[in-house]
Amino acid sequence: MHTFVLVVAVLLSLMILLTLYRVVLGPTVLDRIVGLTVLGAKTTVLLLLMGILFNAVDMFVDIALSYALLNFIAVLGATRFFLRRRSVNLEDERIAREEVQQ
């Protein structure tokens, strides 16, 4: 059981690295915000897997819930910041997609 959980945790860590690539080099701000949300969700699952590996699921569930809540609040704050700054609008997104496709 521990070997299976460890393999899943390693694969999830590799997927986190791929998501981090999208967060750093995303073509638009919205891609980066979605990447941060996915990164937080994967990290929460990774914390729960660590709880299984260390036989302390009750402690890691509390940590994972706290991390998920902080991630949610951070993403809401970042979204609100970019919307107020008016740097995110649909026209910019359309132009960025057209540049990426060419």
Describe the protein:
With 102 residues, this protein is an all-alpha fold. The chain has one domain (2-101). It has four helices and no strands. Helix 1 runs antiparallel to helix 2 and helix 2 runs antiparallel to helix 3 (57-85). The model has no long low-confidence stretch (mean pLDDT 87).
What brief labels describe this structure?
102 residues; mainly alpha
What's the structural blueprint in terms of helices and strands?
Elements: H1 2-25, H2 29-53, H3 57-85, H4 90-101
Helix pairs in contact: 1-2, 2-3
Low-confidence stretches: none
Structural class of the helices, strands and pairings? mainly alpha
Helix content: over 70%
- N-to-C span: 48 Å
Short description:
This protein has 102 residues and is mainly alpha-helical. It has four helices and no strands. It is flat.
